[in-house]
Design a protein that fits this description.
By secondary structure, this protein is an all-alpha fold. The protein folds into 3 domains: 144 residues, no CATH class; 103 residues, no CATH class; 120 residues, no CATH class. The chain is built from 19 helices and 4 strands. The strands form 2 sheets. A two-stranded antiparallel sheet has the order 1-2. A two-stranded antiparallel ribbon has the order 3-4. A hairpin with a 5-residue loop joins strand 1 and strand 2. The protein is globular and about 60 Å long.
Length: 469
């Protein structure tokens, strides 16, 4: 194939940028169509064991308990005003879902009435995946990664439901984007402040939405600061914006827990879930042990804890009594975090999702195995890319954390999504590297690129036809 000239490559990139709004529009239409299809399936009882008449799925059973709270919040907003709505004790994601319901009249709740917010989540997640991929790798990797995330069946279905997971994914990706930008690029002081504000807000929302992730945030931010220091020292320059950002993030990690009382109105859980009572002062060791044990319990109608009857537990009965127990379990946690659900579970009937849900999770897990292999190959090709190593280590820490704490497959599947998205980015980089060939040293193309001005940043030639770029 005849390679494009630098000018043709720049023209192709301009065409790619011009297509971006159309790709976003196509994704929006696709998501609305899928949500409508799911709603119709539920309304007409085509899959009565999976979806109710509102379109709420049994695979996202939290939505059944949230719907009454959303309707109550909608009434508060309509009758008592914005301040009452903002301060009413509930969970943050429930509060946000009351907004589209109010705009739709607030009389009935179904997945179509909450679609405006879910659509925003879906599109923002795709844009963030694209930008994160583009910053760490390139444009093509961004398109590949965003496209795969957009079409991933279980993620797509979960973004039609009444859940907190889309909000969590959004803020985790915002945090990762700010950290990656600082690792990758030098920043002016004002840009560092802007990124610091965005990163701090993202961390606060993560704490509100999923408090147990806070120790993991310490590890992620600490790793980012370490990588930043390594880069700045090696380059022997210290941009003010990068330094300001690092200081703001560390300060946020220290100060935010002291604001916990201010967050309580955004974290009030009215449904008793499978948790163990805890204190905020408990250490990480006890937090991990309590959270894991909590997956073995549920509450009966009278509010008393009883053994859980969930049929999709992994390593049921394993408890942590010391830090040594946790350390010994880490290798198994890696296996669970990266490979669960295991093939032996793919063909059983799930308690909530049935045989079809298990088959779908098995198919997706099989594809995930391929994605993980591609991600390893991509890391080898990008082994000199500091930002790529940052993504890889965050994925690894997330997998270990999930494997340590979560023993239920359904919960693990959802909690793992933010880290799975970063795995998709690494695998997309591997696919891109397979579709791209670099010029042979000494060839005509190599000589042309050596004398190409910096305004033509071309260092590789795509094997993809120009119309696909």
């Amino acid at each position: 194939m005849k390679p494009d000239s630098p000018a043709e490559t720049l023209l192709g990139r301009s065409r790619q940028r011009a297509r971006s709004p159309f790709l976003i529009l196509a994704a929006a239409v696709f998501h609305v169509a899928v949500t409508t299809a799911v709603f119709m399936i539920g309304k007409f009882g085509l899959m009565p064991g999976q979806f109710d008449q509102r379109g709420l799925g049994t695979f996202a059973s939290d939505g059944f308990s949230y719907q009454s709270e959303v309707i109550e919040l909608c009434g508060v907003l309509r009758n008592q005003g914005l301040i009452a709505w903002a301060t009413f004790p509930t969970q943050l994601h429930v509060r946000l879902y009351a907004l589209p319901l109010t705009l739709n009249g607030g009389n009935s709740l179904n997945i179509l009435t909450i679609e405006p917010l879910n659509l925003i989540y879906y599109l923002v997640i795709l844009v963030l995946v694209f930008k994160l991929s583009e910053i760490v790798f390139n444009y093509r990797t961004g398109i590949l990664a965003a496209g795969l995330v957009a079409l991933w069946p279980s993620f797509l279905l979960h973004t039609t439901q009444l859940l907190r997971d889309p909000l969590l994914m959004t803020v985790v990706l915002i945090l990762m984007l700010t950290l990656t930008l600082i690792i990758k690029r030098d920043s002016e002081w004002y840009y560092g402040v802007i990124l610091g504000i965005a990163g701090t807000a993202a961390m606060m929302i993560i704490r509100i939405v999923r408090l147990p992730m806070w120790p993991l945030l310490w590890a992620i931010v600490g790793l980012a600061v370490l990588f930043l220091i390594v880069r700045l020292v090696s380059q022997r320059r210290f941009p003010v914006g990068n330094v300001v950002f690092a200081i703001m993030m560390v300060a946020a990690l220290i100060i935010t827990p002291r604001l916990q009382n201010a967050f309580q109105n955004q974290m009030t859980v009215k449904k008793q879930g499978v948790v163990v009572p805890r204190k905020l002062s408990e250490g990480v060791e006890q937090e991990i042990a309590n959270r894991r044990y909590g997956f073995e319990l549920q509450y009966d109608p009278s509010g008393n804890p009883i053994p859980s009857v969930a049929g999709s537990d992994i390593d049921h009965g394993i408890h942590f009594n010391s830090m040594a127990d946790i350390i010994r379990y880490v290798p198994r946690a890696v296996v669970v975090g990266f490979l669960a659900p295991f093939p032996s579970m793919w063909f059983d009937d799930g308690k909530q999702v049935g045989a079809g849900g298990r088959r779908l999770s098995g198919f997706e897990t099989l594809i995930t195995y391929i994605i993980e292999c591609l991600a390893l190959f991509g890391m080898w090709r990008q082994r000199k890319n500091l930002a790529a190593w940052f993504l890889f280590l965050v994925v690894s820490m997330g997998a270990v954390a999930v494997g340590l704490v979560v023993s239920n497959i359904g919960t693990l599947y959802r909690v793992r999504y933010p880290f799975w998205v970063m795995l998709i980015i690494l695998s997309a980089a591997a696919v891109d590297s397979l579709l791209v060939r670099k010029p042979v040293p000494g060839s005509t193309l190599s000589l042309v690129l050596q004398h190409t001005p910096e305004s033509f940043p071309v260092d590789e030639v795509s094997l993809i036809p120009p119309d696909w770029n």
